[in-house]
User: What shape does this take?
Amino acid sequence: MPNTALLRRASALALMLAMPGFALAQAPQAAPSTPAANTAAPTPSPDTVVASVNGKPITQGDLAIAADDPALSLPGVDDAQKKSLLVDYMVDLRVGAQAAEAAKIGDTPEFKRKLAYFRDKLLLDDYLEQEAKRAVTPEAEHAIYDQTVKLMKPEEEVHARHILVDNEGDAKKIAARIKGGEDFAKVAAETSKDPGSKAEGGDLGWFTKERMVPDFANAAFAMKPGQVSDPVKSQFGWHVIKVEEKRTKPQPTFDELKDQIDQHIVRKAQQDLILKLRAEAKIDRTDAAPAAAQPAPETKKP
Assistant: This one.
């Protein structure tokens, strides 16, 4: 079980290595590359010994386990430095663990309870991970995708531009300029107070109705493509709006939803497994069970 102080040390070293100039100052200069040097090195075996502490080996497999520890995350550190840091950490871990063994720390009831807890936790974590790998299949992914897009209702989208000013008088003058033939994007770049769209000629891209404040959205969705609005007031000021295009929002592709689908499949598979295991187990609780929730009074649903 990793020592908290050692984890803090590893984190501190990681921060130092991430500081500008530190890695360059500490790392030796790489030799000029040659055709032979560019050949990828073979992946070392998990049993490859990288160090030993009092005759007990530390292997490449040990480093791989340490590298998966979130507490030892080392962003921005190259592979060679990371390996060196992990070896140092494992040496400290083994030195400390051997000293703790000699002090009979592992014989105390409290330690044994902790060891049993973390063993159970690691077993469950690995078991759930295996279940997740089994559950995420192309067939399951596409089934969820097909169900999802089937339930999606068609939504109208508008592609519009706008110019935002502080008062109605300025908005009327701007609307008159544009309706008189001036380019909307050019006028927006000159006059709009909206920093997010001004540089883009007032372009807001595609949006659905609920993404905009009601006054703005109601006006934009009531317009036809190519139409320029009269001044529209919202909580942000006065707008002159031009609708460029309208369309039915396209359905998301499988690739766009894949990560969310996989997360859903994994959560459901793991939850179903735990519920199944609980149902099959004989569970006796000696603590006071929480009182059963009373059904709420019958009420009229909206």
